[in-house]
Amino acid sequence: MDISSISLWLLALVLAAISLGSFIKGITGMGLPLLAVPAIASFTSVEEAVILMIIPTFGSNLWLVVTHRRFANLLSQHLPFLVAGFIGGGLGTFVLVAVDDRWLKLTLAVWLAVYLLQYIFGNFLRSFFQARGAMAGAAGMLAGTIQGATGISAHIVAPYFHGRNVAPEAYAFLIASAFLTFSCAQIVTAVSTELFTPERFAIGMVALIPTLVFIQIGIGLAGKLSAALFQKILLVIFILMEIKLISDVI
User: If pLDDT is split at 50, 70 and 90, which confidence band does 234 have?
Assistant: First the structure.
């Protein structure tokens, strides 16, 4: 494959964002796409950022699902959420193709703002995200669609499973299963719409390496570094990304 100078610059940007995001995730538990997608989108397009993150997201969550596969019996309790989320993941990827990048960046900025508000004021959307039955399907559809269109759905997935009173490892398995489900839908749709160019696929595969490596490094340092300090650093980074995304729109 012919790698241009722009491609090398893009590869460097992606690897830097994913390495930092994976390292922070290992220390604080913060979602990798939450940092990497806005960071990459700030310098390219939302479509580029979302597609490039599909393989690292798929690989890292597949690893977690396999690691905690003993909790697989819990999945039957959340089929409405997962099935609707798979459908939403496909729909969201079509939105990624159909909608102008300015609107996608605005959506990403709004979604990042929702996270910042939840970070500051607490999880004020908990009652909706802990729904069951048909409402669980609605939450899953929303999560999958947002994941497909912006690459970020942790603000729905995390609180949805948080209220199920499961052990930490089971919680990690369920969250990873949801993200893996959404990623599968993204892959199918991205391939069918030719969003996965050879270049994007290659960059995604290369990015999978620092994803797994830096998550492990972060986990190893988690007890030695201040998680509170990292949360404050993250808050500053997110605010700067929010400003950059909004400036791109206006």
Answer: low
Contact by Cβ (8 Å): 82, 181: yes
* 157: its two tokens: 């997935």
Which residue's structure tokens are 């309790």?
Answer: 77
Q: Give the total residue count for the chain.
A: 250
Contact by Cβ (8 Å): 152, 30: no
Instruction: Give the span between the Cα atoms of 211 and 221, in whole angstroms.
Output: 16
| Residue 44 per-residue DSSP state | S
Please report, for the chain, how many H helices and E strands are present, in that order. Answer: 11, 0
pLDDT of residue 108: 75
Specify the pLDDT at position 88: 95
Cα–Cα distance, 15 to 137 (Å, whole number): 35
Residue type, 9: W
Q: Which two tokens stand for residue 61?
A: 């969550």
Locate tokens 């939105």: which residue? 95
Domain count, the chain: 1
Range of the structural domain that residue 130 is part of = 5-249
DSSP state of 2: -
Q: How many CB atoms lie within 10 A of CB 170?
A: 17
Phi, psi of 13, deg, nearest 5 = -65, -45
84-113 residues labelled b (16+ CB within 10 A) or e (exposed)? bbbbbbbbbbebbeeeebeebbbbbbebbe
